[in-house]
Structure formats: C-alpha cells, structure tokens
Design brief:
With 116 residues, this protein is of the alpha+beta class. Helix content is 41%, strand content 22%. The chain is globular.
Length: 116
C-alpha cells in the first residue's frame, strides 16, 4: 500500500487553527457545508488545517488541494497570499482561491471549479 506524503506543520498553530474554526466566517461555513462528510466526490476535507507555517481554510490530503476563501482580511495584502501559495506549491499542494462574494453569489460555479 502506497503511503501518503505527510506535510509537516508548526504545532504551535494548532490552538490558533482551533480558534479560527470556532470563529468561521459566513462564507467559510457555506463552503464547509458542501465539503464536509465527503460530499464532494467522496473526498475528505479538513477545515482550518495547519500546513508548514500556515493555516489553510480547507485541505484535502488525498488530492494535495487547498481551498482558500478570501474575505476582508485578504484585501490590500496580495503579496502575503502569493508568498503562502508559493510555499504551498513548493510542498506539492495546489491552491484554489475564491473571493467571499464569489462564494456567496456564484457558489455553483465555485463548486464546479473545485470538482474540475
């Protein structure tokens, strides 16, 4: 049986990830309702998952796929997101980013893009 590649993370981020999970935004909750319990093509997603020195919104370890929902905290600081994406890509993880409004108003298209 082939072993899944394990990506290390900073254990100090676990508590902060738990706090983020408890303080989820409306759009994160909307997305989670479609990703939880293997509803998306039977893939298992984690929410607010520490990876390396970052916390990602959603992560599927079988696909090495991160889904990020960008709300107000991302506006005005695109370099921070580019740096995060670059590092995750170096670890072999693909990152899909969606804006809050895209999730709210075009959820069907967002889910289509994730499935592709």
């Amino acid at each position: 049986m082939k072993r899944r590649k394990i990506i290390p993370y900073n254990p100090k981020l676990k508590e902060f990830a738990r706090k983020l999970k408890n303080d989820s935004t409306f759009t994160e909750i909307m997305m989670w309702n479609y990703l939880k319990k293997k509803q998306l093509r039977d893939f298992d997603f984690d929410r607010q998952r520490p990876i390396d020195k970052y916390i990602v919104d959603f992560y599927c370890k079988d696909l090495f796929l991160v889904i990020e929902i960008d709300g107000e905290s991302h506006y005005g600081n695109p370099e921070k997101d580019r740096k995060k994406d670059k590092r995750l890509n170096e670890l072999g993880v693909k990152v899909l980013r969606f804006d809050d409004m895209e999730v709210v108003h075009q959820l069907d298209k967002v889910l289509e893009k994730i499935e592709r």
